[in-house]
Amino acid sequence: MRKLAFVTLLTSLSFASEAQKTGVEKMDIDPTQSKLEWTGKKLGGEHYGEIRLSSGHLTFTKSKLSGGSFEMDMASITCADITDEKSNKRLVDHLKSEDFFSVTRFPTSSFIITKVEPKSATEYIVLGDLTIKGKANPITFTAKLNTVNNQTIAEATLVFDRSKYEVKFGSQSFFENLGDKLVYDDVDIRVKLVAITK
Fold first, then answer.
1. Angle at the Cα of 78 (from 75 to 82), degrees rounded to 5?
2. Which of 32, 52, 136, 139 has the fewest CB within 10 Å, making it most exposed?
3. Buried/exposed 4-13: b ≥16 CB within 10 Å, e otherwise
4. Containing domain of residue 170, as a range?
């Protein structure tokens, strides 16, 4: 038991030493404190709700954001604006269906940072690949980071074109003369990632 503890201590010290040498630090994201909020708009209205985070991390080089990724549990999607239980379930089931996110076939979506450009002391231009329904497309947005105690909080709004991911229902990119059945292609995801320093 003492030998195992000693080996574990040496391994931890080795990683810490390597992080100090390279200036690279990887911080795990806490899914319980993080939040993903979506908003989809249609002709004459909108719907909004949440999606749970499955996992993720942020990478820092010399204390500056340099990479990271996160994964979304698409089966956890909820709607917050419809109060009637049956109507709410009808919409959520529809979002999970083949008309929208095909959750049975594609239970997760993900985002991977490919490039980071500092904008200010707390802001970054983030470039990365957003994968939905097995299709990856590049996306760019501004992220704000703040550190409070042992937590690093990253916040951003991602706007993606759902038609690029074969999410076709009510999309004018695929159908004509939709009238009041039109659902706009752009979807907003407001992201709050809470990374913990161990």
1. 150
2. 32
3. eeeeeeeeee
4. 23-196
* Contact between residue 39 and residue 75 where contact means Cβ atoms under 8 Å apart: no
Residue 37 lies in a domain: yes
Give the count of domains, the chain: 1
Q: CA 165 to CA 5: how far, in whole Å? A: 48
Digit-by-digit pLDDT tens for the chain (198 residues) are 554 444 444 444 444 444 455 688 999 999 999 999 999 998 888 999 999 999 999 999 988 999 999 999 999 999 999 999 999 999 999 999 999 999 999 999 999 999 999 999 899 999 999 999 999 999 999 999 998 888 999 999 999 999 999 988 767 655 554 445 578 889 999 999 999 876
For 123, list phi and psi in degrees, rounded to 5: -120, 145
Q: How many distinct helices (H) and strands (E) make up the chain?
A: 2, 9
- Angle of CA points 43, 139, 113, to nearest 5°: 140
74, 101 in Cβ contact below 8 A?
Answer: yes
Q: Are 196 and 150 in contact (CB under 8 A)?
A: yes
For residue 4 the two structure tokens come to 């195992």
Beta bridge partners of 16: none
Place of tokens 């074109």: 161
Can you give the CATH number for the domain in which 158 is found? 2.40.128.110
Task: Report the candidate in 163, 165, 183, 184 with the shortest Cα–Cα distance to residue 174.
Answer: 163
